[in-house]
Amino acid sequence: MDFSGDYPECVRAVSEPARWLADQISKSRGRWVRNGYEQIAAAHQGLRVGSHGDDRCGRSAAKWEGIDITFTSEERVQVRIGQELATYNYSELGFEDSRSGKPNRAWALLMDLAESRGALNRKDSTEKNWPQVEKRIQEVRKILRERFGLNDNPLSYVRDVGYCARFKIRRGESFNS
Length: 177
What we know:
Elements: E1 3-4, E2 12-13, H1 16-44, E3 48-50, E4 67-71, E5 76-81, E6 84-89, H2 90-93, H3 105-115, E7 119-120, H4 130-148, E8 155-158, E9 162-165, E10 168-171
Helix pairs in contact: 3-4
């Protein structure tokens, strides 16, 4: 017997594999609940909720200004294009470090961009070496162009301001919960 008790709140894992499983469930429960609420909220707003179907996001995106990216956690974003809403993790969007399987540094820069609501300058960046920031910006541009099927520049450089996203990007309310 791997578990003892009756109600879910009282169940105790008694074997090592069961303790590991209980730990994994505990770690994932918040994410599952949050994703469920996001889908319910989207349904009540008349949005279509989905996930990735192929390598490109939002085939209906005609221009960057019609794309809204919201970070729901350090590993997931919600992408809205018109009435379509989908969630992706860093790997599904192409921001995975192939050596470690973890988010790459371009993903960290995209999170910095979300925290500053679409405008990134030297003081907002967690990267202290500005040439490295510029390199990451190039990586983000390349990935976003591929994923959204748009050829023009998603991140413009504006003198005395820094890099500015042509799409909406921010951290969602669920990011810090």
